[in-house]
Amino acid sequence: MGRHKIEVKLLKTTNKNLAASRNVGLPHCTGDIVAMTDDDAEVSPDWVLQMKRVHAEHPEAGSVGGAVTGIDSGHNLT
């Protein structure tokens, strides 16, 4: 797979609430697609490119989600 330029901007906030923190970041987004994941999620190396492809194939979609691949012994989604 070739290299692709993807711009990432990290913002600091004192807010500990995930949804509120995302709302702080959204006004700073400048692209056509906003990709979000949680700090404890593992994504494939081509995750952003997969999201871009699905959005291109389905421009009517308002959002795209990923797969949950399992649940560990502590009943956590993995």
What is the 3D form? Answer: globular
Low-confidence stretches: none
**% residues in beta strands:** under 5%
Report the helical percentage: 10-25%
Mean pLDDT: 83
Which structural class matches the secondary elements?
Answer: mainly alpha
The H/E string reads HH
Rg of Cα set: 15 Å
**Cα distance, first to last residue?**
26 Å
In short:
InterPro entries: Glyco_trans_2-like, Glycosyltransf_2, Nucleotide-diphossugar_trans. It comes from marine sediment metagenome. The protein is mostly helical.
Account of the 3D structure:
The chain is mostly helical and 78 residues long. Helix content is 24%, strand content 0%.
Overview features:
78 residues, 2 helices, Glycosyltransferase 2-like domain-containing protein, mainly alpha, single chain, 0% strand, Nucleotide-diphossugar_trans, Glycosyltransf_2, Glyco_trans_2-like
Write the SSE topology.
Elements: H1 18-25, H2 47-57
